[in-house]
Amino acid sequence: MFDELTSRVVFVTGGNSGIGAGVVDAFLAEGATVVSADLSLPEGLSGIGERAWAVRLDVSDESAVESVLDAVADAIGTVDVVVTAAGTSTMGYATETTGADWDRNLDVNAKGSFLVARGVARRLVAADRTGRIIFISSQAGKNGYRGMTAYVASKHAVLGVTKTMAVELAPRGITVNAICPGIIETPMKHRERIEGGAIRGMTAEEVAAEDRSQVPLGRTGTTQDVAGVALFLASDLAGYMTGQALNVTGGMTMH
Ligand SMILES: NC(=O)c1ccc[n+]([C@@H]2O[C@H](COP(=O)([O-])OP(=O)(O)OC[C@H]3O[C@@H](n4cnc5c(N)ncnc54)[C@H](O)[C@@H]3O)[C@@H](O)[C@H]2O)c1
Fold first, then answer.
1. What is the CATH number of domain 3-185+222-239?
2. How far is the CA of 105 from the centre of ligand 1 (A)?
3. Which among 45, 59, 137, 252 could disulfide-bond with 55, CB atoms 3.0 to 4.6 Å apart, if both were Cys?
4. Among this protein's residues, is 240 annotated catalytic?
5. Contacts of residue 101, Cβ cutoff 8 Å, sequence gap at least 6
6. Tell me, what's the pLDDT at 219?
7. Pocket of ligand 1, candidates 11, 12, 17, 219: which has the most ligand atoms within 8 Å of its Cβ, to mutate?
8. Ligand 1, atom nearest to 17 Cα
9. Which pLDDT score is estimated for 47?
10. Sequence-distant (≥ 6) Cβ neighbours of residue 168 within 8 angstroms
11. pTM for the complete prediction?
12. What percentage of the chain reaches a pLDDT higher than 90?
């Protein structure tokens, strides 16, 4: 669909599950070279298929981010497109949220996304190349949600980084945008229904029914729904967009 992506090196964090895995598959189907970087993968950058690479990475570990990006540059080349889908969440009302909950959400979702985007941006600037930075934030980056204090804070932070890096990198031809997914069927969402339901006195099935009832389009989202927007943002069609936060929520969030 997007022929220009065949020449791109795409780095996807959280690529071993859920939305990140959907993004990996979508870019591979477009003919891109794709590196999946995830905490749950084996150590060491290795080729795992035609144009497909995998590496273990904890995005919250600053030196690990730098050494993995160096290894990618040496083995494959400069990363043109980064999608930061690595993420975590803890469920708990604000009054019950611990400092450790706060640190975990902010470290992975906010600092981790920033560290990876910064590393890719530094290398693009040094190579005098244009590129695309695509953050996965959330509609929780725009709204408050009960029982998700630290997560909501972390996703708001991602949108602040998006807007600031967009302004700073625009003169370099590097665009920086965020996707704000709504309710997407992934392992994280399934776990959240169990844990979030427990603190609200609901079963996971009751939470799932409530989820569906809140979406104007009448269904929850798939990883492909999100991946398609990532492809668009990486494509030539989106060249005049930067600093934006695109909702992929079935109409649930409209601002
Ligand atoms: N599922 C949803 O409804 C939804 C909605 C909005 C935003 N999001 C966001 O989308 C992203 C992906 O979520 P998902 O639902 O696919 O979750 P998921 O749990 O299915 O996948 C997340 C992946 O991130 C990896 N990961 C976790 N911590 C990491 C770390 N420190 N370093 C590297 N990798 C790490 C995990 O191993 C996992 O493979 C997250 O940022 C999440 O907040 C999800």
1. 3.40.50.720
2. 11
3. 45
4. no
5. 90, 92, 149, 150
6. 98
7. 17
8. 39
9. 98
10. none
11. 0.99
12. 100
Q: Is the Cα dihedral 63, 67, 58, 87 positive or negative?
A: positive
Dihedral sign for Cα 27, 29, 35, 41, please.
Answer: positive
- Residue 157 has phi, psi (to 5 degrees) of -60, -40
Residue 139 phi, psi dihedral angles, 5° rounding: -65, -15
- Burial of 26 per CB tally in 10 Å (0-12, 13-18, 19+): buried
CA–chain centroid gap for 86, Å, is 6
Separation between Cα atoms, residue 87 and residue 58, nearest integer Å: 10
Token pair, residue 206, equals 């009751």
Q: Pick the atom of ligand 1 nearest to 108's CA.
A: 31
Residue 33 Cβ < 6 Å to ligand 1 = no
Q: Please report, for the chain, the start and end positions of each structural domain, with discontinuous segments joined by +.
A: 3-185+222-239
Q: Ligand 1 in contact with 184 (CB < 6 A)?
A: yes
Amino acid, res. 117: A
Spell out the residues 6+ positions from residue 215 whose beta carbon is closer than 8 angstroms to its own. Answer: 182, 183, 249, 250, 251, 252
Structure tokens, 218:
């009448």
What pLDDT, on a 0 to 100 scale, did the predictor assign at position 188? 97
* Ligand 1 pocket, residue 138 CB under 6 Å: yes
Residue linked to tokens 């997007």: 2
- Specify the 3-state DSSP secondary structure of 172: helix
From the CB of 235, is ligand 1 less than 6 Å away?
Answer: no
- Please report which confidence band the pLDDT of residue 157 belongs to, taking 50, 70 and 90 as the band edges: very high
Q: Which amino acid is at 223?
A: T
List, for residues 106-123, the tens digit of each pLDDT value.
Answer: 999 999 999 999 999 999
Alpha carbon of 171 to ligand 1 centroid (Å)? 31
Tokens at residue 138, please?
């959330």
